[in-house]
From TrEMBL:
The organism of origin for this protein: Trinickia fusca
UniProt-recorded name of the protein: TetR/AcrR family transcriptional regulator
Database matches in Pfam families: TetR_C_13, TetR_N
Region Disordered: start-end pairs: 1-23
Gene3D superfamilies referenced in this protein's UniProt entry, alphabetically: Homeodomain-like (1.10.10.60), Tetracycline Repressor, domain 2 (1.10.357.10)
InterPro entries per the UniProt record, alphabetical: Homeodomain-like_sf, HTH_TetR, Tet_transcr_reg_TetR-rel_C_sf, TetR_C
Length: 208
């Protein structure tokens, strides 16, 4: 892993020989929440140290620099989000109900979270893309996986007779991806669950 720019300029390389004495997953979770609350550019290393309980040397040794922490945080957040989406879409219920539940999740999040409004992936994309290629590549990969999950649900819904058989599953999956991201963005500004649920109902009618 690369050393941070700050450490290169300062001439003092962080110690890397010591074994890690912390849970990388828990640290990534804490970093994700900090970036989620504040955004990348407004988050300082001191903020990350406070959130994780680690010293700068430990953060540098594990992640390289602040940007490395962001990438680790995105990976951690994304994997959790993808697992939860897969569980909702493959819960054993009819595809129409499963897709609606996956969309309704975003309406509930928008209506209940206060300072953590929006989606870390969406917020980071708006802040960092297209200037940051590493972030863009990660987010694009996550979105591909989301559409793959939705496409499978669309095919299943067509087989069950709930969705229009003329729908293209990939285009419909892209539509559902746009719905999930749109719900998070609109919910960040207008956390009105009833209005967002109405939008979900309109989207579901478009499917079948």
């Amino acid at each position: 892993m690369k050393t941070s720019t700050a450490s290169q300029k300062g001439g003092t390389a962080p110690q890397r020989g010591r074994p890690r004495e912390f849970d990388v997953s828990a640290v990534s979770e804490a970093a994700a929440r900090t970036f989620w609350e504040r955004g990348y550019h407004a988050t300082s290393l001191d903020d990350l140290c406070d959130a994780t309980g680690l010293l700068r040397g430990s953060l540098y040794g594990a992640f390289g620099d602040k940007h490395g922490m962001l990438l680790a945080a995105l990976d951690h957040y994304s994997e959790g989000a993808l697992v939860r989406l897969s569980e909702r879409l493959n819960s054993g219920r009819p595809a129409c109900e499963a897709v609606r539940e996956a969309l309704l999740h975003h309406t509930r999040v928008a209506a209940t979270l206060e300072h953590l409004r929006g989606c870390l992936i969406t917020n980071t994309a708006l802040e960092m893309v297209p200037r940051d290629e590493a972030v863009a590549t990660r987010i694009e990969a996550v979105m591909r996986r989301v559409t793959t999950l939705f496409a499978a649900a669309v095919i299943r819904g067509q087989a069950e007779g709930a969705f229009d058989p003329a729908l293209d599953e990939r285009a419909t999956a892209d539509f559902l991806l746009c719905m999930t991201q749109g719900l998070r963005v609109v919910g960040k500004v207008i956390p009105d669950e009833a209005r967002l649920v109405t939008a979900v109902d309109v989207a579901m009618r478009a499917l079948g």
